[in-house]
Amino acid sequence: MKLKIKTKALSLPLVNYDTQSVLLTLGAVFCISAVPLIFAHTPQNQIITGSLVNLILFAAVARLGLFNALILCPIPSLIALLRGLLPAMLAPVIPIIILSNAVLVIAFQVLKQRSGITKVVAASFLKTAFLYTLVALLFSVPEQFKYMISLNQALTALIGGTFFLGLNQIKLKQK
Fold first, then answer.
1. Would you tell me how many other CB atoms lie within 10 Å of the CB of residue 37?
2. d(C-alpha 129, C-alpha 155), whole Å
3. 71 Cβ contact partners less than 8 Å away, ≥ 6 residues apart
């Protein structure tokens, strides 16, 4: 008598790699790369650029999933640094901004069962709290600087999230 053994394996793809997801991810990479370049020299460029970047991050996690959205997190900060759009004193903070973008994306995904506004506000708050805490712990900079960078990130996350929710509502009404 032969003994048949069946095994099951659970696999979780880290990245969506179907054709549509790959193309949308590449499109998101292009958009998130272009935003800092296009709006670099406009007045209040940090508010405009940051809001558009956060809009793209919210849309990416909603449409492409967590891991594809995480791919996008480092791109805008690195491009801004390479193009000289950030003051030199901000260079050491770039990794923390990248990680705070990841916190935003992860929080938004984890809260996917909540209402849109709850997800946006909570993800924006967690991003800001993470950023402020790490800057405060790792750098000896004036309190004013910590607030400036944190509040700017909070504002742009909330603006980007609000635009995402608005665009999402328009899309839902069209269906």
1. 14
2. 13
3. 15, 25, 29
Whether the per-residue pLDDT at 20 is higher than 60: the answer is: yes
Taking the C-alpha atoms of residue 33 and residue 29, their distance in angstroms, rounded to an integer, is 6
C-alpha 161: how far from its chain's center? 10
Q: First-to-last CA distance in the chain?
A: 58
Residue 70 lies in a domain: yes
The SS3 assignment for 114 reads coil
Is residue 10 one of the residues assigned to a domain? no
* 164 contacts 58 by C-beta, under 8 angstroms: yes
Q: What is the pLDDT of residues 21-70, one digit of tens each?
A: 667 777 777 777 777 667 666 656 778 888 888 999 999 999 888 988 99
Reported pTM: 0.80
Range of the structural domain that residue 159 is part of:
19-170
Side chain identity at residue 14, one-letter code? L
